[in-house]
Amino acid sequence: MNAPFSLAATNIRSVDFSDVQDLARIDAYVQAHPDGSPFHLTAWGRAVAKGCRQRAHCLIAESGTGVISGVLPLTELRSRLFGRALISNGFAVRGGPLADDERAGRALVDASWSMAQALGVPSVELRGPVPESPDWQVIDDRYANFSRPLGQSDEADLLAIPRKQRAEVRRSLGFDLDVAVGRGAAERAAHYAVYAESVRNLGTPVFPRALFDAVLDSFGEDADILVVRQQGVPVAAVLSLYHGGVVMPYWGGGTHAARTWRANDRMYYELMKHARARGCSHFDFGRSKPGTGAFTFKKNWGFEPRPLSYAMRIADGATPREINPLNPKYRLKIAAWQKLPLPVANLIGPFISRGLG
């Protein structure tokens, strides 16, 4: 059943995810919008709902004739550890309101707050810019995005990497490493094993395996896994998304052995080659927090950071969620997690991480 949120001059309604026709209309709108991303597609919301057991919502703005003029995907996040929030979009780096004009965008933003109140959720987090409003706190200093055009050839991409980092990539090309791309059981198992070890070493709980499987199943050919192996053993792997000519390496990492073989460097360079062969024109390195190793790594590859603009609204008297790993209060917990045996971390991690959003 579609639940209406009435606002003057623009019709806003909540989409029923069992309505296949509506989902197709939304995806067509996202694909055509210049600011659309994989995280605005209904495939993302459906994958998060299946993989993390969080509820997917989507608000759409329509004209009087029923033509879509805006989309706002939302994840209703409920966690005993991290609280409750309505997020656009959950487990994503983007997903804020897409709209044809400011009026439709403002109506969607206002409707998201009305939905939060109806659901009894104390805060809304929008991962994208919103129309200026005193009710919303703009956050533009927490994350930076790294993106640039791909070169016209493999050598052009190599030369675009600053000299010191380029030497590391060239060194990786001299090692006996095998690279494979796919979406099957072998690639999925290799990716999860590598990624789980990588995030444990960083002191972070791993996401559920079901989330990665759901994303691959929902996106079809618009998602794949690139694996780097040394003597048959996976040492680096990345799950990437493809949208509008852009490749986004989204969940990637390497084992401890990856450093010896410069496998992460090889992985991202091979992904550039693979993406160009697929017809991509841009490489989106995702977001990172200033002051982190990932932020420095991406700068070393010659990517310039650009601030991401997010927005948040919190109910009177409510406390905002705090999941920033740079917060000093998490220091001891991160150090303890890094020492956990990998099987234990992999057993406990998904129960924690599916509430992070």
Automatic annotation (TrEMBL):
Domain of life, per UniProt, equals Bacteria
- Alphabetical list of NCBIfam families matching this protein: pepcterm_femAB (TIGR03019)
Residues in BioF2-like acetyltransferase domain copies: 164-298
Annotated InterPro entries: Acyl_CoA_acyltransferase (IPR016181), BioF2-like_GNAT_dom (IPR038740), PEP-CTERM_FemAB-rel (IPR017469), PG_Glycine_Bridge_Synth (IPR050644)
In its UniProt entry, the species of origin is given as Sphingomonas colocasiae
The secretion signal range is: none
| Pfam families for the chain | Acetyltransf_6
**Protein name, please?**
FemAB family PEP-CTERM system-associated protein
